[in-house]
Amino acid sequence: MHASDANSCAKPVSWETASPVYCHNVNLLFVNPPIYDFTAFDFWMRPYGLLRVAGRFRACELTTFDYLVSRQRDAFGRGNFDREPVARPTPLADIPRRFYRFGRARKEFLEVLSGKHFDAVLVQTVMTYWYPGVREVVEDVRRLQPHAKIILGGVYCSLCPDHARSLGADQVLEGLDLRPLGLPLSDGLPLWESVDAQVGVLKITEGCPFRCTYCSVPLVYPNFVGRPVDACIEEVRFLARLGARHIAFYDDALLFQPERILLPFLEAMLRQNLGISFHTPNALNARFITPEIARLMVRAGFKTFFLGFESSEYQWQRRTGGKVYSEEFASAVRSLREAGASSITAYVIIGHPNSSEQDLEASIRFAAAQGARIMLSEFAPIPGTPDGEACRAYTGLDEPLNHNKTAFTLRFLGPERVNHLKALSREVNCALPGSQEPIRFPQVRVPDRKNTYTQCL
Question: How far apart are CA 88 and CA 31, in angstroms?
């Protein structure tokens, strides 16, 4: 928590007329909701967007509540969330998998709501099909703090705004503009001091210059821009002061225009010598990994390298945007291995509507033959993307639960095919030199395969 419990019975402040002079009297609660899904893992999953937004309202009284807290993490900073089995919602009743609620106990949030007055509750949203957790938060706030203004923001609100409005919030923010909130904004650092900061997150760019047909990043971030290097360095230093040991990059195009963005950042990091391990769960574009960049990343402390590969079939690669081709992938893995990288993983997408063109078995074997571990990434049909819209022939996209990556992939490929591909991945991973236990942290990569905790709330 980042605020005292004083004034728990304070009179509500006029939210719309708050000014910097008395904005400190406005009590804001920022919430990262629980997840309802078949699977969810702490794959460096931190509420970065929520904390960035909170950091812009430091003149107010701020409290955060993060449902998604790992009790134990592995050597790289990943872990498991608490979970409890729950009934599958009706739209997912046909899926032969157990369904869970992931996150802290509901009673912990109710205690926060019972102990302090809040003028507004701002709720982060991410995956479109995770809205049941958002709805839970809205219901609890309505019941215990009926006077509080409830505001939703984030990816779900931008991709499915009409559905988000149906949850009963007072305001739904679409896009990145925070001005409709009606409160003074500042350029403060993300509010990392309000949560466990052993594992942090950073973005040194916004958006992506590529237009992959399965990716919704262009719908959320229309333009690609690099952030000021000095500001990024200050974020890292701030996290280091708070005890961060790991930082994951949430960039969608971390390696694009490296001479202008990444290389100056890496050189500055080498001068800082902070002893932090860096990770790349959002997938690096193998096209831009040169021997020089690979060596510099390893020297700067990058420990895990996740590459977006998806398929070895040229026609599929070209049809979905031509982001990277097989020879570029092979060259990237070679450069990373020669630079001393020991953890290299290739994402291969399964459940894509054009799966018949992917030759998934050959794609898995090709990536493994280069020396990369395989991590299967289940496709989620997101409305507004070309590939997502193509899936209207297979499922009802107006119900966001049907965007669920596990559900769509099982329905499209069938359980037997999915299990076969998972078994093949385990087989090739175990055959890699120096193989350890298969990776047990399947990446949540949505709206395309990105971990999009970076937009608005």
Answer: 24
Give the pLDDT of residue 16: 53
CA distance linking residue 46 with residue 42, whole number of Å: 8
pLDDT score, position 24: 66
Task: Give me the average pLDDT of each 10-residue run along the chain (457 residues).
Answer: 36 46 78 98 96 96 96 91 98 97 98 97 97 98 98 97 98 94 91 95 96 91 94 97 97 96 96 94 95 97 96 88 91 97 96 91 96 96 95 96 98 96 96 62 40 37
Domain 15-181 has CATH 3.40.50.2300: yes
Q: CA–CA separation, 221 vs 443, rounded Å?
A: 21
Pick from 249, 245, 335: nearest CA to 296: 335
Whether residue 343 contacts residue 304, with contact meaning beta carbons closer than 8 Å, is answered with yes
Pairing assessment for the beta strands 171-172 and 205-206 based on DSSP bridges: unpaired
pLDDT for 457: 47
Query: Of 351, 344, 371, whose CA–CA distance to 284 is shortest?
Result: 344
Q: What is the dihedral of CA 267, 268, 270, 273, to 10 degrees?
A: 180
Spell out the domain ranges in the chain.
15-181, 192-430
Q: What is the pLDDT of residue 49?
A: 95
**CA-derived radius of gyration, the chain:** 22
Domain 192-430 classification at class level: alpha beta
Q: Write the burial class of residue 176 (CB in 10 Å: 0-12 exposed, 13-18 middle, 19+ buried).
A: middle
State the Cα–Cα distance between residues 296 and 34, nearest whole angstrom.
38
Task: Tell me which residue of 380, 373, 363, 377 sits closest to 316, measured CA to CA.
Answer: 363
Q: What pTM was estimated for this model as a whole?
A: 0.90
